[in-house]
Amino acid sequence: MRKALSVKAINAFKPQSKRYEVHDVLCPGFSLRVFPSGRKVYTVKYRYGVKQRRLPLGVHPRISLQEARAKAIEALRLVDDGIDPAARRRQLGMTVEAICGDFIRQYARPRNRSWKEAERILQREFVAVHGQRDIREIKRHDILELMDGAIERGAAYQANRIHSNLRKLFNWCLERGIIDTSPVLGTKPPTREQARDRVLTDDEIRAVLHVCAKDAYPFRQFVPLLLATAQRRGEVSQMKWSQLDLDAKQWVIPAELSKNGKPHVVPLNDFALRLLAEVPRFTDCDWVFTTTRRSPISGFSKALRHIHAESETTAWRYHDLRRTAASGMARAGIAPHVVEKVLNHISGTISGVAAVYNRYGYDAERREALDKWGTFLEDLEE
């Protein structure tokens, strides 16, 4: 429908069963969309490059017809000058909070499976302190203060994570033309990290298993299952019943959860199956480990402190259980490349050109490895 838009005419437009649009004859490209709910939205349609785009201008009557038409004319003027008005409007929200939100949504989430961790760090360490500042005003001393603060509270490795995520954020801003120079440029990670090599001894494994056996769901089964499967904490904690085939004795970690982005089949030994048989199943809930029935478990740090205290073991983390399992399988004579397959590593003994041509999954060997490891854990439990 084409019509000279006026306030009287706009007020007279009635909602219909489907959304319809009224094009303004006084300003080509400017129109009003009327939704079945009665909502009326001003928009302007334009062509930028080879793509036709639409820019929302505001909702009637919160914005007047005169204001909306002026916005439409300004947007079309920007197009004539070779500027995308939608991109220009996105740049107007230059607060740290707004830009961090755009960075997570447009860059981190589509590219990085650990984007939630990046979001958590940026929100807690950067947005919480500088959220309402213009991101173009952030200077090097602001970045250094954030990292120094983490070190002072004893979180030296967290300071490195802050540096890494801020570097990515400001590089992204630089590419987008939001900033001219990065305040992170010229700074270094404040702490030199060393790869962990903590492996639990047999006595420590026995003590941990005994403590878990006296505990309640979910950590009663969760922690031993980390040992039994040698998989990552995030993968085990987000395990779903729909991923398990108990008859075939296997668990398929989906690609979106797997660190290397590929589905990973984990053979389940008898030790793991016994643990899963103890887990309660809730109606209309697919999570294996949950306390809310709506999301996977949390509270890992509190549970770990409890296990440390009760088992009289120290200085180990959940990820060290994965290393302990890998070392245990190697000690049992399992070949290194099979252990790599169990861990779902994409590098290691089979990498480079060999990895391209060697597509054998070592399924039987992986099952044998985990069966041996499960038997060892059962013997330790006695």
Give your account of this protein's structure:
There is one protein chain. This protein is of the alpha+beta class and 382 residues long. The chain has three domains: 82 residues, Integrase, DNA-binding domain (Double Stranded RNA Binding Domain, 2-Layer Sandwich), CATH 3.30.160.390; 81 residues; 180 residues, hpI Integrase, Chain A, CATH 1.10.443. The chain contains 16 helices and eight strands. A five-stranded mixed sheet has the order 1-2-3-4-5, covered by helices on one side. Strands 6-7-8 form a three-stranded antiparallel sheet. Helix 4 runs antiparallel to helix 5 and helix 6 packs antiparallel against helix 7. The longest helix is centred in the middle third of the chain and has 21 residues. The chain is elongated, with a radius of gyration of 28 Å. It starts with a strand and ends with a helix.
Q: Which CATH class of the largest domain is shown?
A: Mainly Alpha
Low-confidence stretches: 350-359
CATH superfamily of the largest domain: Intergrase catalytic core
Helix amount, in percent? 40-55%
Largest sheet: 5 strands, mixed
H/E element order: EHEEEEHHHHHHHHHEEEHHHHHH
Query: What percent strand?
Result: 5-15%
Distance between the termini: 80 Å
The count of β-strands is 8
CATH topology of the largest domain: hpI Integrase, Chain A
Q: Examine the secondary-structure arrangement and name the CATH architecture of the largest domain.
A: Orthogonal Bundle
Q: How many discrete domains?
A: 3
Radius of gyration: 28 Å
Instruction: Order the strands across the largest sheet as they lie in space.
Output: 1-2-3-4-5
Structural class category: alpha+beta
The dominant shape is elongated
What's the rounded overall pLDDT mean?
89
Total of helices: 16
